[in-house]
Amino acid sequence: MDLGASDSYTTADFGDNIPQTASSSSVYEILLLIQSDDLTLKVQAAREIRRLTKSSKHYRRYFSNAVKSLVHMLHSNSFESKEAALLALLNLAVKDERNKISIINAGALEPIICFLQSENSTLQDHATASLLTLSASSVTKPIISASCVIPRLVDVLRQGSSQAKVDAVMALYNLATYQGNLNLILQTEPIHFIVDLLKSCKKSSKAAEKCTALIESLVCYEEGRTAVTSEGGGVLAVVEVLESGSLQTREHAVGALLTMCQSDRCKYRETILKEGVIPGLLELTVQGTSKSQTKAQTLLRLLRDTPYPNSELEPDTLENIVSNIICQIDGEEQLGKTKEMLAEMVQISMEQSLRHLQQRALVCTPADLSISSFKES
């Protein structure tokens, strides 16, 4: 890059983040370009910042001084200027808490939120990705939450591109962890769009995990439970995750179903049962996370005729619980699959117990030998 008067700058002009290395000259040049009055040069510099910060935490620190100039570019009438600045800011914010805060403090939030409503799908996509990144900070969540961004993100979830919808639901998940935001999210009536996304995405994906996590949080409220059960295929979408989701996604799914059943067993028991939930729950009891296993067993108990043991003659074992439920299931296909899963569950449980005993034997053997040797001596 040829700046002409490149020998006129000093490190004092840009703070203490500039590296004292052979590459420092190019960093200075880019920082000068981003402050230029020439829009073409500013765009060039923003693109270079984006390139260099894509995978380098060091460059994210070096170019933190460019934040104010990049935010100023967001107000330009030029699409190229907006896009270049937005992408540079996005990369600067990735895994850098200080840059996230600086970007918010520099006034980036207002134009970014405006871009969510842009007719230009590219700007909308980049803005949604930026909000996803910025909302990952516990410091910025209260500021973003106060900016009325939640309805805008739900709008993106309603009519954005495929990638924008994924980024929007993940941003909503980030914001949902801040106090009071779940009520705000519920008020926007997002369940239909969350369920739609869950139906269409791969069940083991990060998007499915965040969709299911959001549903688990929202069904803590009566409005959320009503919305999920009223949505065509809403409960089924959650049940399907039990069989093909990631471990974390399945944990959220069983948590959502358990919350519903615990809130009003009589109201939700049949709704959950008829969607074929038993095979997925059986699998979770032996192959899920420790939390999933506990939740799955608790839900199975709630799904039978009575959630309490019938008698002392019929122990409250998982096999007896499931056998009780099998008697209530309609449909040969579902009944057959459930019986098959029960047999498989018992087999897996026995194999795990055997492996546990073998491991204990291996651990105990050296100790036993040493004791024997000690006695013989």
TrEMBL record:
InterPro entries: ARM-like (IPR011989), ARM-type_fold (IPR016024), ARM_PUB (IPR058678), Armadillo (IPR000225). Residues 45-306 form the U-box domain. Gene3D superfamilies: Leucine-rich Repeat Variant. PROSITE patterns: ARM_REPEAT (PS50176). ARM repeats lie at residues 65-107. Keywords: Repeat, Ubl conjugation pathway. This is U-box domain-containing protein. It comes from Solanum pinnatisectum. The lineage of its organism: Eukaryota, Viridiplantae, Streptophyta, Embryophyta, Tracheophyta.
